[in-house]
Amino acid sequence: MRTEEHRVAEIGHDPACGCRSSEPGAGPPSSARSARFETFSKIEPHPSTLTKRQDPSMKFAITADDVRSVFGLSGVVHFPRYDAPHNRLDDRTALLLSTVGLPDTAWFTSKASLRTDDPVDLVSWYGSRGTVPPACRHRLVLGRFAETTLALDPDEGTVYALADGEEELNCGPVHRDVESLVYALTKFEALCQGLESDKGEVEVRVDALRGEITEFDPLPFADEDSPWSLAFEEVVDGIW
User: Fold this and answer.
1) pTM given for the model
2) Which of 9, 67, 117, 225 has the highest CB neighbour count under 10 A?
3) How many domains does the chain have?
4) Which residues contact 168 (CB under 8 A, 6 or more apart)?
């Protein structure tokens, strides 16, 4: 028998499934962040950054062991995979979410909620908090990062970052696919853990990781006001 947790974790499969909302008390971004993010949100993904659908049998650049070794057994969420006719995810995305999983930490919340009324589509997720642009309405919520909501376009596989704007949500591409998102999250957490015990050459190490992530996927740092750019600045400034 499927558990309630399994039922709500069918991201992209069941419109009634849920994804945990942002942490209590987590409000919209600060005015400074909002202004910078509004600039970032106007960029569009270059065709070269959008990968074609790949054979799901191909290996991922980040493995389940890589993610577990950094976030621990309790810090990774796996989404059950179902071969239902209304499956909205391509095979590669569904395979990664079910085998590698998504991290779930204090700074990236992705764990599915046990509440059946927690929506996964952006329109229901935001409700009266903001107007979702028409182009974003079919996207699916993945989690919260750096005061933005990350959502998956199930058709192209790209991950978008959304934040509150003056009239409607600001939205911009931040990862070419979920694999890139998990790769960056894992590398970033490993860096933060290393800095807890050794704070030497912080800027050098942050710049090195920025280059490593950019080599894998240029989208996270394609704009200086992207959520990743802001997060890395805060690490250098010692306020992360």
Assistant:
1) 0.75
2) 9
3) 1
4) 130, 131, 132, 133
